Amino acid sequence: MQMADTVFMFLSTIIVWIMTPGIALFYGGMVKSKNVLSTAMYSFGSIAIVSII
Question: Where along the chain do its domains lie?
Answer without folding.
Answer: 2-52
